[in-house]
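pasting for ref
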Amino acid sequence: MIPTVWYRWLLIAVWILMIFGLSMVLWPEGIRSGFSLMVYGSPTAIELQFSAAANAYVIFVHGVLGAVMFGWGLAMLITLAGPFRRAETVGWKLLALPLVAWFVPDTVFSLYTGFWQNAVLNTGFALLFAIPLVATRRVFFDGGET
């Protein structure tokens, strides 16, 4: 049996992921300003220092990334409601393994390219999921309660 606190935590984490992703699609200028503030210390640095074409591309890439995040979140919701809720090992793996597959290359690439701020953001998102996944691991692999 999955402890309710961890199940609800994961549901909230997935909704945060989906809302963030959808905001990247529906509020592209605001997201660009947020990333500009995070990376350059100014909400207008990207807008003012990049060309109009570069700004349009940044908004486009954020929108595509947001749509992917939204879709990934939907897949996570389906996993949570199905195999994870039934405490099937595959349910835990379907959440944990894609998170690792995203986190490691994204974070390494962020650090390699000098955008450590994105690595910090990644770490926050990863912890949002890692804490309940680590807490529930025994239920899926040892058959024990957490």
